[in-house]
Amino acid sequence: MNDEMKPLVRDDSNGRTRRRVNGGTETLQSSAGAYKPVNSQNDVSKMKHQKFHVNAFNNCVTCLRYCGCSNYEMISQEGPDGDYYRDDFNDQPHSCNIGSSEENGIWMNQSDTAGTIMALMVWFLIGYSAVTITFLAETGGIHSSLSMLYVTFCALALASHAKTQFTDPGSVSASAQPVESIRLMNPDAPLSMCSQCQTFKPKFSHHCRICNRCISRMDHHCPWMNNCVGAGNFKHFILFLVYTWICSAFSLGLLGWNYFFCVSEDCIFSVVLVQLARFVTLLSSGAFLFTSSMIMNVTYGVMTGIGTIDRLKKKANNTILNSDEEPIPLRDIFGIAGYHTWVVPIDPVFEDYDRVMGFSTAQRLLREQMKEKTISEHYASSNV
User: Fold this and answer.
1) Do both 11 and 138 map to the same domain?
2) pTM higher than 0.70 for the full model?
């Protein structure tokens, strides 16, 4: 009797059919109306591989959630049953004209010619240093991977600069209204009005004479950015300082290593490269000192909750020691979308946008009332 004619035995434990072979059994599975042998060892190995990949994926996801590198917690708390809702409505004008008023769709300060020139100088100088380091790698003085890494940091610095320059720093709208939650925390505090804008002036906001707008949580107006630094672009400004500091330290290290420690013929510079390297060394030294002082200034402001303008006013009035401001939470700067978004110059997702900005608008309050009405109807229908 051949194998195909041997009797079949039904195995009800797994729904498959087994065939008797030399006193034993062989597992079969049905395929297109016929039975064929199944390699049980391959099945077990395949299942082990699948289980390994699933466990590895789950462990990675759990690790990312634990480290904050995930927006799972933010998304899980959205919706009718969550604590938050996402407001994706675009309050900005849809026109493509450039300026800093409420009618302009693209934020850019055009009233300061000197600031425009200084902002362009930043791009030229960072690009100049990247080209010099690339020439240094071409001569064999440094490895090409180090040059690629330096250019990457330069690109991140320029992207952060662009985001700082072309992002609304937190301009206060003409229809701005106090936030109820902030108002209830200190009901006796008087409401301020801007004498220039004739609008509500949130706490820690200041009127910028160059941008001609009130800026929420304004730190200062930076001519190198050609823009104010406020609650809306504070993250991008910090990233620009950090990446510029890294580029300065990196270039000084590369040039210093070639000057003091490299003795091979590959480290001999040409006449042109010598002049380029000298200027980059001077440029990097100045940028390193300047960004170091600015990083310490920003760190002090975050830890004390006092911006540069407020600190100068308090020092002038000799009231700096009487300050009772709270430190600025990092989630009010970098958002709650995960730690992996902190190092990338993209707009942060704030936990409470109105609280961070210090004001709300009639349009946002109306959308919030509509959301609350929808949630109430949802609960009413679920109880029925």
Assistant:
1) no
2) yes
Classify residue 347: in a domain, yes or no. Answer: yes
Total domains, the chain: 2
Distances (CA, A) of 305 to 202, 228, 235, 302: 15, 17, 15, 5
Alpha carbon distance 217, 206 (integer Å): 7
Q: What is the pLDDT of residues 106-142, one digit of tens each?
A: 899 988 999 999 999 999 999 999 999 998 888 777 7
Spatial separation of the C-alpha atoms in residues 84 and 65, rounded to whole Å? 19
Last residue of a domain, one of 35, 62, 89: 62
**DSSP letter at 321?**
G
Integer angstrom CA distances of residue 304 from 201, 299, 315, 321, 326: 21, 9, 14, 11, 6
- Residue bearing the bigger pLDDT, 52 or 160: 160
Q: Which amino acid is at 24?
A: G
- Assess contact for 204 and 217: CB atoms under 8 A: yes
Average pLDDT over residues 48-57: 69
Domain identity same for 144 and 235: yes
Do 270 and 367 lie in a common domain? yes
- Residue 31: count of CB within 10 angstroms of its CB: 9
User: Is the CB of residue 234 less than 8 Å from the CB of residue 333?
Assistant: yes
Most confidently modeled of 175-189, 331-345, 359-373?
331-345
Q: Beta strand 200-201 with 206-208: parallel, antiparallel or unpaired?
A: unpaired
pLDDT at 49 over 70: no
With a cut of 90, say whether residue 207 has pLDDT above it.
yes
Where is the domain boundary, 40, 62, 84?
62
> CB–CB of 18/9 below 8 Å?
yes
Q: 32 and 112: one domain?
A: no
Q: Which two tokens stand for residue 156?
A: 């991140």
Q: Is 222 a catalytic residue?
A: yes
Q: Are 299 and 308 in contact (CB under 8 A)?
A: no
Residue 169 pLDDT > 50, yes or no? yes
Q: Are residues 169 and 231 in the same domain?
A: yes
Task: Find the domain containing 265 and state its range.
Answer: 72-383
Residues 105 and 82 grouped into a single domain: yes
Catalytic hit among 222, 228, 247, 262: 222
Q: Which amino acid is at 34?
A: A
Kindly state whether residues 92 and 22 are assigned to the same domain.
Answer: no
The single-letter DSSP state of residue 36 is E
Structural domain includes residue 331:
yes
Residues 204 and 353 in one domain: yes
The DSSP output letter for 171 is B
